[in-house]
């Protein structure tokens, strides 16, 4: 049996392509109430250490984005998955 595993660095190109898109246009599903929505439809709260996006249906946290000097943290645990068009796709 062969080992088909690669080091996580092998995903670098694909991840760089993914995070080059406008995620506000991405559609997802709330992990709490299963509502499907674009991230742009979330209710955004800015009076925190970062940005907090909440589901308009159940008010559960969909995502958190915190920025610091030279880095950012993105937590998407409230979204089961994201769907988006890739740049240059027709």
Automatic annotation (TrEMBL):
Domain of life: Bacteria
Name of this chain's protein: MJ0042 family finger-like domain-containing protein
Organism of origin: Streptosporangium canum
Lineage: Bacteria, Bacillati, Actinomycetota, Actinomycetes, Streptosporangiales
